Amino acid sequence: MPPESSPYDERISAAEARFEVWRKRLGFWLGPPVGIAIGLAGAADPAQRLAGIMAFAAIWWIGEAVPAAVTALIAAAAVVLFDVAPAKAAFAAFGTPLLFLFVGSFFIAEAMKVHGLGARAARAMARRARGQLSMLIALSTTAFALSLWMSNAAATAVALPIALSVAQSSGDRRYAAAIVLSIAYGASMGGVGTPVGTPPNLIGIEQMRLAGLHIGFLRWMSFGVPLGLIMLAAMWGVLALRFKLRPGRPLPAELSGLTHATPWNRGEVAVSMAFALAVAGWLVPGLIEVASPGSLASRWAATHMTEEVVALAASAILFLWPVGGDRAALTWGEAARIDWGTIFLFGGGILLGDLAGKTGLTARWGEALVAATGAHSLWAITALVTAVALLLSELTSNTATATLIVPLAITLAQAAHVRIEPPALGATLGASFGFMLPISTAPNAMAYGTGQVTIRQMAGAGLLFDIIGYGVIVAGLRLLCPLLGLS
Known about the structure:
The protein is mostly helical. The protein has helices at 14-40, 46-63, 68-81, 87-92, 99-115, 117-126, 132-147, 152-170, 173-191, 199-210, 217-242, 266-291, 296-304, 307-320, 332-335, 340-358, 361-373, 378-393, 398-416, 421-430, 442-449, 455-483, and strands at 322-324, 327-328. Helix content is 72%, strand content 1%.
């Protein structure tokens, strides 16, 4: 993912800068002619015209010639211009209910940043550390926990300043690199744990919904959290091995003031209450269904306490809760800073995926891909799409990767007449596993921008972590999906 705004200077090598320039240029000039050529190959067929639009969008998303959200909006307009779908149907995708789960959860995350609630959690965890390795574990666990409920970049931004202070005080360059990487990787791992942890999760959920399957909040957590925790523990092992960390080394004495406890302010209390209400609302329908399957209460909760309604209701409290003077816990000026681009990208991706199914394009692609790859079994398809998503996520944003690969995974599964959940989940999770390069994820870019870690160090640790992550996804889904009735 291209670096999101961060408080750290971005320092990239000359070779990486040249690669970025050529990637953008190539994508910019290649996208339109390829899209037009594919569309004209069967211009009378709406599915063929849609294939041209999708090829254009895919090339611009991978090349990041323009912001990904702009590409999504251009694709939506092209769908109408080239008579693939009427305007009302095309732009209805930008009102998909699940999109408002993004909005509500982004509001809560922004309020956490405004009032410093996430930083308080990081300091509280850091106070428990007694040595360098335990500090690394404490701060990466904090990044993991925060990223369950806010964006990976936001979770990294909260924990990274404390990790950077520890790194600079340690006087050990290897330890400095390890603790900075642990924040970036921990945030990426936390993102897979809940539907709101990272945009690819909601893209996967929505694409499965379009295919007729629903995965609720609690059900997602039942496999997302265990897989994320396994990866978190694996990360500690990788970093300890790669950077030769020793558990007994003490922390510098000057760090004592960094973790000093401070009184709670009214804003932190307000955000805590809104956050607790949102989490409870997201989990309650699943808990009722477990306790009383098919009951009236379960049916009511499923239809009325949807994730997006809960997110909007909980976040609305922040605009009403006074925290001193004339201000509420969240002002509209602060709320307007959320990542609207991700929301537009989500809407555009859902539109293209939905139309691909309705025009019959996915069926054609699925049959061709099954014939070309020879992947006919459920777990062969899952392994294939997970690998493709993981590799693509190293070069482009995880959201764009999921937008491209999850519909493909579902198409392959349908063409092979196997369950769609494991391939779709493999592609979704694989899209979040880019650990090798600063351009792979926003947390990676932020960690690299501190100057404490080199590309060689990131690539060495990231390659090993990618290999482990691929095995964890495929093996974890192979074990958990049958237990959860997803295969």
